[in-house]
Structures are given as structure tokens and as C-alpha cells.
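User: My collaborator sent over this chain with a note saying "see what the structure looks like." That's all I know about it. Can you take a look?
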Amino acid sequence: MSINVDVDDDVTPEPVAPTLSAASSRPRVFQPVFSSTGLAVAAFFFALSLLPSLLPRAGYAQGVISGVTLMIGYGIGAGSQSLWDYLGIPKLTGRTRTIVLDFLIALVVGLALFAAWRQVGWQNEIRALFGIPQVSWTVWPVIIGVALLTAVLLLIVARSLRLLFRTVFGWLGRKLPHRLAVVLGGAGLLLLFWLMITGLLFNGLLSVLNSGFSTTDESTAAGIEQPQAAERSGSPASLVKWDDLGRQGRSFVASGPSVAQINEFSGGGAMEPIRAYVGLESADTPQGRADLLLAELKRAGAFEREALVLATTTGTGSLDPNGVDPIDYIFNGDDAIAGVQYSYLPSVISLISEQRAVGETSLAVFDTIHQYWSTLPEGSRPKLYLYGLSLGSYGVESVLNSINAINQPIDGALMSGPPFVSDLNTMIVTSRDPGSPEWLPIYRAGSTVRFTSEEGFADTPGPWGPTRIVYLQYGSDPVVNFSPSLAWERPDWLQDGRRPPDVSERMGWFPLVSMVQVAFDLPGSNSVPEGFGHLYSKKANTESWVAITNPPGWTAEKTTALTALLESQPRVGS
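Assistant: Without extra context I'll predict from the sequence alone. Here is the result:
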């Protein structure tokens, strides 16, 4: 068996549009024939795929990205050539054709070789920025092998779909006019695929994933034991059963700083912090879980504390210790932190499937707690704060967009790593004050909402009002920065002189390619050191909470000391 390259334009001087019957009569799925234009564009896209993105890549990840990007290029090239032939547009001939083809081939091959030569160096520059071990040229066999395997699988799928379409066109063409057969057959198949993907396949996949992750949710992380303090959900005194809390809920209520640890930092007088949590199995509906949480907070005495934090969990139900532990120290344990689980699925999956669930749960919890809280004497009720990381940030936005939060403002909110589906964040960033960058914007002189990163807060010219809302986001976080618009528009955070300090200067922007790169960064956003990607550091979270709560007598030295203390403590449970 030989591999043939369809030169596309040297068969006949007069191009002839292919007929339906001729096109559909040839087996094409495993036939080793390729479009020369498609291969040229594929080589160009392969070179672009090797350029740096937001996060460092392992060899297998680079191979998958390169394989997908290569096939996108091949599809564009082969499709463009087919359209050219179908329309009967004249082609170059003779010596002119030879010169142009030789130049383009040399250019594309040169770009691919240059990118391959520089790829390891580019990756190591990002790795140095992130402070992680470097890679060597030995990664190339992995990249090439995975890229070829990915490209072959995608090519088989694409050719199989093409064969299916041509078969349907041919069958309908025996009963209907040619163009009508193509229109009806194409529309019918596309509709069928859409219904299968969004309905049967998507729901079936979610069912399988839910089943798998629900089993994981029944387990308990190493080192986690049932708390005995009455201030903790799942304890013998609690209204919520320990077994119903879920894996992440059990980790949350059984961890956090002890009274002794808080006293060591503050000098004494600490209280046992309240940690209330309701698992997905604790009640059947979001409202039922919200009602149970209110009863649990009343039982534990949360409304007699100085501060109450309603925390929206991530997809699996977790609450990041980096985001919640500083609160216990800032208030010397005189606080309550409460969360409710709404899903078993990780946030990367929940971003697609659980937006409604997180919104319903967040609003039910806030409305229920806020309604009771608002009946208490204003001078004796706790300060009310909101917190959310990742999809939890999306849940906090659901509350901030509600009429209740407008009529009776909260004291503050921290939203870390707001996902790209966050409408409020998008609106604020789009409406930012002129001159401020997209990755660290200033909105209305910082009167209510302010942005911060690992490097600290943006310089804001105006005073901060009584309600303090903070967005903590990193420039290298693909959860924040992914957008379908990357396919056709260069973002502000990749403009010269406006990119974040944690984004490589080597990262460029190219249509389609950049969107694919950042999309493939999403699964690895938590596989980087703290302070990069989607892992928000103890330092950044502590500085954010200090700014939001504005504790009296607090100093910058105390923030530094608290950060050092948190960084010295081992992380328990996951």
C-alpha cells in the first residue's frame, strides 16, 4: 500500500466540479490519499501549536494539542481546496506554479522546523517563570507519537462522517434533485448529531460521570476524622449526619485552625470557629438543604458571632482552605463559615452542566439565611460576607445579581478565579475605567468592586465604600481567560505592554489556534504551583480578606505573619 498526496491542481487544465455519484463511490476512510494543500496548512498549524500558552505543558499534553491543531489546519486546507475546485476557480500552471509551490513548501517546512527547534526552550522559559523543573529534548518522541495518534484518530472520525454524509446524499439523490438532496440530507444529519450530542450522549455521559464521582464522594480523605466539637457539622451534636456530608464536606468541617493555633497567632482569647455544611445527600432539594443549613447555624450559635461567611462550593463541594482558613484567624475564631454541596462533578465539568444548580443553590441559601439575618437587631447581628472559588464565584455572582443583595447590601464578598461564564465579571471588565488593563481592571474608581492578583491590588484613586467586593484572578488562569472569542479576536491581556506578569512574553495570538491552546490549558489549571493558574495562594487570599473585612488595628506586618503561618501548616484532606 502506498501513500499518495493529491496534488490538487495538475490533473487537467480545465477544472471540473466533482459529481455526487463519483465522489460517493470511492472509499475514503482508510485510503492513504491526502490533500497537498491540507498538508501544507496542517504543517503551518503544527508549528503554531508549539508556541507557548498560559501554562507549561507535559509532552503528552503538547502532543494532544498539536494533533488537534494539526487536524484543524488540515481540515481548513483540504476544505478550502475542495471549495476552490468545486467553484471551478482557475489555478496557477507551469513555471509560476512550481515557483509558488516550492516557496510555500519551504516556508511552511522552515516554520515547522524552527518551532520544533525552539519548543523545548519556550517551554522551559515558562517553567522557569512558574518555578518548576525543566524538560529536555527527550520529550519529543512523546510529542510526536501522541500528536500522530491524535491526528489519525481525528482523521478517521472526519472521513467516516464524510462517508456517511456522501452515502446519505447518494441515497436521497436517487429520489430527489441533487441540490435538494444535499440540503435536506445535510440538515437532517446535522440535526440528528446535535440532538444526540446535546441529548442522549451528553446526558448519558453526565449520568456515568455522576455515578462515578458520587462513589468517590462516599469516601473520606486520609487524616480526616469526625469532629467532636458542637460548633462543627457532622459532630454528635449536629443536625447534619457525618455520612451525608460528602468527601469534601467532611474535609471542610474536620479541618481548619484550632483554638490553640489561633491563640498562638493572636495572643489569646480565641473561640472555636463554627463550620457548618450540608451535603448533597442531606436533603432532597436546594431549598431543603438551605433550610437545614439555617437550622444548623442557629443550633451552633452562628448568629451570635462577629462574622458569618456564606461560601459557595466548587463543583465537587470543596471549599479551598487557602480561601477560608484566613477568616478564622482574622476574626480570632469569632466567625462562622457555611457551605452547601450542589454537585459531585469537578468544576471543569460543572462549568458546562451545573450552572443552573449552582445558581439555584446559592440563591436558595442566601435568601433563606439573609431573610432570618435581616430580622436580627442591626447592632448585634454578624457581618455578612460571601465567598466562592471557581464555579463558586459564579454562585456568588448569582446572589450579587439578586434583588435582595441590592436592597440590603452585604458587608463584602471575595470571588476567586471567576470562570469565563461569569456575566457580572465580564460586564465589569468590559466597562472598566479607561486605561486599566483587562487582567487587573479598575471599575468606577474602586468604589465598591476591586481586583487583585498575586502582585496585589490595582491602584484605585477613590475611596472604598462600606460594601467591599473583591475579584481575585490570575493572568495565567485559563478558567478566567478562556473565551470562544479567542478564535477570532486578540484579547487585551495579550496586547503588548498590557499582559500580566505571569503570562509569557512569548505567547502570541493566532486565530483558532489560541482558543484551542487555552481550552486545553483548562484541565491542567490546578496542576501548577500555588500563585499560578487556578491555584490561588494563601498570600493572595489573606490579603484579599484583610482588605474586605478591614479589621481594626490590623497591620501589614500581621498580614505577612499570618501568610507565613498558613504556609507553614500542612494541608489535611483533599
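A starting point for your reply to your collaborator: The beta strands are 4-6, 33-35, 274-278, 307-312, 335-340, 383-389, 412-416, 449-453, 456-457, 468-472.
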